[in-house]
Write a structure and sequence with these properties.
- The chain is an alpha/beta fold and about 450 residues long.
- The chain folds into three domains: about 110 residues, Rossmann fold (3-Layer(aba) Sandwich); about 150 residues, no CATH class; about 80 residues, Rossmann fold, CATH 3.40.50.
- Helices cover about 40% and strands about 10% of the residues.
- It contains 19 helices and 13 strands.
- A five-stranded parallel β-sheet has the order 6-5-7-9-8, with helices on both faces.
- Helix 5 packs parallel to helix 18 and helix 7 runs parallel beside helix 8.
- About 50% of the residues are buried.
- The N terminus is likely disordered.
- Bound molecules: iron/sulfur cluster.
- Iron/sulfur cluster binds next to loops.
- Its EC number is 2.5.1.72.
- It is found in: Cytoplasm.
- Pathway: Cofactor biosynthesis; NAD(+) biosynthesis; quinolinate from iminoaspartate: step 1/1.
- It catalyses: iminosuccinate + dihydroxyacetone phosphate = quinolinate + phosphate + 2 H2O + H(+).
């Protein structure tokens, strides 16, 4: 398999132009966007948040929030080691640690990391694995920050969850911070009140006679523990890309409308498939009063969508799908629901990373798949399924810049520190936040699809 490092291509649009090109729904017009080969060339230049952006990769034009975690320089020997030496260091440390450590690897991680993972999966699958391995003293999470937080919430208090590079955030998760969501909530409560109202002003109730909420907050798994806790204490719930429809059903059974954050695309695509009209899904821009909406628009809404997006998935366009179909007649286009609505509508199917994986695995040999998700996962699927032709919809290879910050050098460092009896880069969610976040996570686990 060709590695991402050797396949990175340079797209020449300057960052400012690319940012301006992103339209109001967070999609990127065909042929724009930026991605630099510098990501693969010198990973040590991007350990800490840069002045404005996340550094080269799909999210390089997104703004890093102030106060984001940084990674100080690690010892020079890890930086000087060859890929082969790092591989050997990681293997030796894992062998020494045995069952004392489990290494989780997200589908979007580079091959050099996934090769050492005890478990590979999406964020939710990995969190479940963290919960299922109380025997391990340490969980080394090769993903991004919110995933490590979720693992810490679901694991035992005695276990340490380690993120090899704490600067591996998620630009989408960072688009909704606790303060902005609290402000949004206060404005919604002022405008709509706490309870759902009928046209005559009477309070609507559920089947048990309990008042329905005016708004139920729903946060995507890709959010901070603080926002999961916000949902826990405000009658809300967490969702993943696999269960978003079930979770929205749960929310609609308890409230008149949903506030969905941070990913507008997952919210819009899911609600649209459930029959919610687009005109009843206003966008909430946290920089504008009432999110840029009138009180009547909010009163008429069913889903209020936070103005967030994934910079990897917004790169996919309908033009790319048309080109794939023209060049590969009969190909199957499968995309992730974090893609813009028009891309999901034009695809043959849309679903979580697990859905994409299963769609490929279940197909008769000899199929051609054009896939709209992160390049590391697409390349891995292509290597695992030589019986198919599999390629990425986006011709410019542009990995998630924050996932890419988990370099094997950092993995070798945290494992060798564990061997020496030191826990570094521990991700620890405070007890209060963890308790409230658990409430929202448990609601998600208990939500079942309608029969
Ligand atoms: S692929 Fe998108 S949602 Fe996933 S970690 Fe990267 S920026 Fe966040």
């Amino acid at each position: 398999m060709t590695s991402v490092a050797t396949r990175l291509a340079l797209l020449t649009s300057p960052p400012a132009a690319a940012s301006a090109a992103a339209n109001a729904t967070g999609s990127v017009p065909a042929g724009t966007g930026s991605c630099s080969s510098a990501l693969a060339e010198q990973p040590w230049d991007f350990p800490a948040p840069l002045a404005e952006g996340y550094g080269p990769g799909a999210s390089q034009d997104d703004v890093v929030p102030p106060g984001s975690s940084a990674q100080p320089a690690i010892p020079q020997r890890y930086r000087d080691a060859s890929p082969e030496q790092l591989d050997a260091m990681i293997r030796a440390a894992k062998e020494t640690l045995g069952e004392r450590v489990v290494v989780m690897g997200h589908f979007y991680q580079r091959d050099e990391i996934v090769a050492h993972a005890d478990f590979i999966g999406d964020s939710f699958q990995l969190a479940q694995q963290a919960k299922a391995h109380p025997e391990a003293e340490a969980i080394v999470f090769c993903g991004v920050h919110f995933m490590a937080e979720t693992a810490d919430i679901l694991s035992t208090p005695e276990q340490s969850v380690i993120l090899p590079n704490p600067a591996a955030g998620c630009s989408m998760a960072d688009m909704a911070d606790e303060e902005s969501v609290e402000e949004c909530w206060a404005e919604l409560m002022d405008t709509l009140g706490p309870h759902a109202l009928a046209a005559d002003g009477s309070v609507l109730t559920d089947g048990d006679g309990e008042p329905l909420a005016s708004v139920v907050p729903v946060t995507y798994m890709n959010s901070s523990a603080a926002l999961k806790a916000f949902c826990g204490r405000n009658g809300g719930i967490v969702c993943t890309s696999s269960n978003a429809a079930t979770v929205l059903e749960w929310a609609f059974a308890r409230g008149q409308r949903v506030l969905f954050f941070p990913d507008q695309h997952l919210g819009r695509n899911t609600a649209k498939a459930m029959g919610v009209p687009l005109e009843r899904m206003p966008l909430w821009n946290p920089r504008k009063p009432l999110g840029g909406n009138s009180p009547d628009q909010l009163r008429d809404s069913r889903v209020i969508l936070w103005h967030g997006f994934c910079s990897v998935h917004r790169r996919f366009t309908v033009a790319q799908i048309e080109q794939a179909r023209a060049e590969h007649p009969g190909c199957t286009v499968v995309v992730h629901p974090e893609c813009p609505m028009e891309v999901v509508d034009a695809a043959d199917s849309a679903g979580s990373t697990d859905h994409i994986r299963k769609a490929v695995a279940a197909a008769e040999p000899g199929q051609t798949f054009a896939i709209g998700t992160e390049i590391n996962m697409v390349n891995r699927l292509a290597a695992q399924h030589p019986e198919h032709t599999i390629f990425c919809l986006d011709p410019v290879i542009c990995p998630c810049s924050t996932m890419y910050r988990i370099h094997p050098g950092y993995l070798a460092w945290v494992l060798e520190e564990l061997v020496a009896g030191r826990v570094v880069n521990q991700v620890s969610v405070s007890r209060d936040v963890a308790q409230e976040a658990s409430v929202a996570l448990e609601r998600m686990l208990a939500a079942v699809p309608r029969a």
